[in-house]
Design a protein that fits this description.
This protein is of the alpha/beta class and about 280 residues long. The protein has helices spanning about 75-85, 85-105, 120-125, 140-145, 185-195, 210-215, 235-245, 260-270; strands spanning about 5, 10, 20-25, 35, 40-45, 50-55, 60, 65, 110-115, 130-135, 155, 170-175, 195-205, 230, 245-250, 280-285. The chain has a domain at about 75-205 and about 245-285: Rossmann fold, CATH 3.40.50. The protein is built from eight helices and 16 strands. The strands form four sheets. The chain has a seven-stranded mixed sheet with strand order 11-10-9-12-13-16-15. Strands 3-6-7-14 form a four-stranded antiparallel sheet, with no helix packed on it. It has a three-stranded mixed sheet with strand order 1-5-4, with no helix packed on it. It binds zinc ion.
Length: about 280
């Protein structure tokens, strides 16, 4: 099938603003360059370069693809399958995260989950005594799961357009969200405005400083240039948050359902060795 060339745009580094960059990887694997365009799964080009910022070392896809309305990197079925298959391991990870936040914040309050997906974290936070709210931009997904009528509901809205009061949230979470957005700096800025003083921003992203990324190079599983646009390590992520006056407090991992993996992650968190594929960071406003 002929490859479809979608429009693309240049963007500067979202951490330091520099446009000086070197090409690090050219992704050629056709499976990673397939999108769902107007309901048809087909090969897509133009977003195959992963570059590294010469100033701060951030890795990102450049140029970045602009999806036509009704098109997406993965089909809805693929995304539904992902949420279904990962549900029990995400549940374990969320329980760990809720405990960690509780230790840092003592008092429960309002929790906004941005990019709420199937709403699992929102419902677990609500069940643990938080006043939880979820938003997501994927109208198809939210409708397919009936989440607008769920309790608590997931609202389909962009963070920047949401009618939320500045300084009103104790916790805002971005779990596996920041790597998907074109301008992570604008998203962090918007979250910072919505947090109350002393509130926590919780971020989890794929970790390009992981052992897997180092060993596998261009074939690292998170180099999916149509849906993952920015690749942070602990240094670039902390630097992005510090740009908005946030104070990084602690790194964390999200354990899955395997007991062995849980023990390894707990040990590596204690030793502050973060070589796992996922990188969590909690920062305070
Ligand atoms: Zn940079």
């Amino acid at each position: 099938m002929a490859s479809l060339t979608l429009p693309h745009v240049a963007r500067p580094c979202c951490v330091c603003g520099s446009s000086a960059r070197d090409v690090l990887h050219e992704i050629r694997d056709p499976e990673r360059l397939t999108g769902s365009v107007n309901g048809q799964v087909q090969p897509v080009t133009t977003a195959e370069q992963i570059v590294r910022c010469r100033t701060c070392g951030l890795q990102y896809v450049h140029p970045v693809i602009v999806w036509p309305i009704g098109s997406r990197a993965h089909t809805l079925d693929y995304d539904l399958d992902y949420f279904d298959q990962t549900r029990s391991s995400r549940q374990v990870g969320n329980t760990h995260l809720l405990r960690l936040v509780q230790r840092l914040l003592k008092k429960r309050g309002s929790w906004l989950d941005v990019g709420a997906g199937d709403g699992l974290l929102v419902s677990q936070a609500q069940a643990s005594g938080w006043e939880a709210l979820g938003i997501d931009i994927d109208a198809e997904l939210v409708a397919a799961l009936g989440l607008e009528r769920a309790s608590p509901p997931i609202q389909v809205i962009h963070l920047q357009d949401a009618d939320l009061d500045p300084g009103s949230f104790a916790v805002i979470s971005l779990v596996n969200v920041l790597e998907h957005v074109e301008a992570p700096d604008e998203m962090v800025a918007a979250c910072t405005r919505l947090l109350r003083a002393g509130g926590l921003l919780v971020i989890h992203v794929p970790n390009v400083g992981s052992l897997g990324a180092m060993l596998r190079g261009a074939s690292w599983r998170h180099y999916e240039p149509l849906s993952h646009l920015t690749f942070f390590d602990r240094h670039t992520l902390a630097r992005l948050l510090e740009r908005f006056g946030l104070e990084p407090l602690t790194l964390f991992s999200l354990p899955g359902s395997s007991r062995l993996k849980r023990s390894i992650l707990a040990l590596s968190d204690r030793l502050r060795i973060h070589l796992h594929d996922g990188l969590g960071l909690i920062a305070r406003k």
